[in-house]
Amino acid sequence: MGNESSTGNIRPGERRNTRPDGTGTTRSGRVRNTKSDGTGNTRFDGTGNTRADRKENARPGWKRNIRSDGDGNVRPGRKENIGTGENKRKAAVYIVLTAVFIAAVTYAGIRLGPRLTELARKPDELREWLNSFGWKGVIIFIGIQVLQVVIAAIPGEFTQLAGGYLYGTFFGTVYSLAGIVIGSVIVFYAARLLGYPLVKLLVSPKQLEKFSFMLNSSKSEAAMFILFLIPGIPKDILTYIAGLTPVRPFRFFVIITIGRLPALLGSSFIGHNTQLGNYGIVIAVSVAACILFFAGVLFRDRIIDWAHRLIKKDGEPDSGGNTRS
Hints:
This protein is an all-alpha fold.
């Protein structure tokens, strides 16, 4: 009696490496480990169970590289637990980074805020202090502008006037703009990486509610540019909120540069002419700047509402999910 019976059975433990013929049946006997026939069928072992079945019946807790089945169900195993652990680690990193950022901003605001504000109000003392650092004084001035963006306690108007007083209209504008853009980059990415909980700690609920219309709108760029351009709108707070919007980083930095340039140029011009003693020009430009500033403050809510309507029109969905024609 041979190894193979007349029915084509093989002895247990033996393996035939025969391939299927054109009809889908094997040339001789049954094959214990058959390959897929191209229709998605899996290979069988000697007991008739698929390999996926054997993986499913394996000891619990083992790591399995099992894909989901046709119904979208995922095989049980350790991967679900791995995902949970990864989420916990991400949450821990997020909490630590948020705490570090808040602590750094608070410390800098308490330690440096009052002194820098006092120096900005006394440009002669600020010049003497910066000149004591030599060529590094320019870098320190740019750093002051960075801090006044990140730390709302430092008034930006005084530091911008001081820039024109110290370095002239052109270079005062350039140095102030460089610091403001760098500070805006820091604030924007901090808000985008750490999210709404960070912004909620630094921005009051009332202000968040005012600008909430930009958070999920694809047209927030236009409204953002208008708000940055008009005096009297809290620019530093708006920068934190911008990190939560869908605006692309490069476009936001362009908006910051163009939107804040006119005010910086005007502040540097006033500061420079103050240093030159052209008080008539200083008074005239300052009066015009104050009128624009107080008009922006007085009509701030109306301007924000108008920007809101600008976003809502042209088919933008409203709060109920309906689109306007």
